[in-house]
Structure formats: C-alpha cells, structure tokens
Amino acid sequence: MTPKGLIIRDALAADLPAVRGLLVETWHATYDGIYGWQRVAEITNAWHSLENLGAQLEREGETFLIALVGEEVIATSSARLERDRAALLTRLYVLPAYQGIGIGRTLLQVTLACFPQAPVARLEVESQNEPAITFYERMGFFLQRQARFDGREDTPNTLMMAKRLFAE
Ligand SMILES: CC(C)(COP(=O)(O)OP(=O)(O)OC[C@H]1O[C@@H](n2cnc3c(N)ncnc32)[C@H](O)[C@@H]1OP(=O)(O)O)[C@@H](O)C(=O)NCCC(=O)NCCS
Fold first, then answer.
1. Residue-range domains of the chain with CATH
2. Which residue ranges does the record assign to the N-acetyltransferase domain (predicted)?
C-alpha cells in the first residue's frame, strides 16, 4: 500500500543533493549486477552531478518530480515532450526500501499526467533490468524495438517501450 502522506511535487534546487543521493543508491542497487560497481559509479557521477541535475531543472518543457514521505525524498522521475509530441520518460527511480508498495505506479501516473496532449509515452529500459520491464508491462507499456544505450560497446542494449495515452 502506498505510504500515507506521500507528496509528489516539482523538484527544487534545494532538493538536488537528496535527489542525487537517491539516484546513486538506487543505481548501484539496480545496475551493479549488470554493469559492475565501477561503471555504475562513473555513469551516476557524470549523469547525476548536481550541475547536471541543476541544468535539468532549468530546461523548458521538462518535468522533474520528486516523491516525499515526511522530509525524505524517496523517488524521482523526469520526462519531456519529444518533437512528435510523445512524452519521453527519462527517469523513474524509487529508493530500494520503498519499492513494491505502489510508489512507482503513482509517480508514473502523475508524471504522464503532466503531458495531457501527448498521444503516446515512450521510455528506454536496460534489457537486463527484468523487474523494471515487468513493472512497465504492468503499467501498459509494450516492447517497441531494441535501441542502444549510448553507443558504447561496454554498455548493454536497451529496449524501447511505448504506451498509447489516448486515441486520436
Ligand atoms: C521499477 C520501479 C520504478 C517500480 O516502482 P515500484 O514502486 O517498485 O512499483 P509498484 O509498487 O508501483 O508496482 C506496480 C506494479 O508493478 C509490479 N512490479 C513492480 N516491481 C516489480 C518487480 N520487481 N517484479 C515484478 N513486478 C513488479 C507490481 O507487482 C505492481 O503490479 P500490480 O499491482 O499490478 O500487481 C522501482 O522498483 C525502481 O525504482 N526500481 C529500480 C530502478 C529502476 O529499474 N527504474 C526503472 C529504470 S528504466
């Protein structure tokens, strides 16, 4: 059951150290077994630096949300509108201690609701991240095609998934 007092709101600059901490912890828990600790540390230090997260806050048309229980930031998501009006989910992470109790579902719904004009939602998921693939399937996403994470040979394949949001 989703915890009582769950608050979902836009991330603010003051939240970024906590968001970074959440991302580093959840990335290690999720990807160390796939990429190895060292590579995960490299990626998460680069992508989730306070500078990068701060730049994301400034970007027009981008949704960057956090979920809180009390003072604790327990989940974060981000998404943006693509040229074809698709809502692209760029991040969805729930702290390990809070996974499996409905927070991912709630945060995903709130995130997609920020794009009422989008006919479709898309996302990219690591092809070996089976729990996440199962989660997205439960949320109505289907496999669209295979993609590659960032073109690096030492980075495994990702899958593109998509979900129709409303019939045009
Ligand atoms: C994937 C993730 C966002 C899901 O959020 P969550 O809060 O744990 O999931 P919820 O409790 O909202 O679950 C919603 C549904 O998905 C299913 N689900 C969630 N995690 C699952 C898992 N590990 N295995 C199987 N099913 C799962 C639940 O059973 C539930 O289905 P139901 O209620 O229809 O039976 C979260 O577990 C997470 O942050 N994981 C690590 C990071 C990650 O992989 N993020 C995605 C990167 S693309």
1. 6-164 (3.40.630.30)
2. 6-166
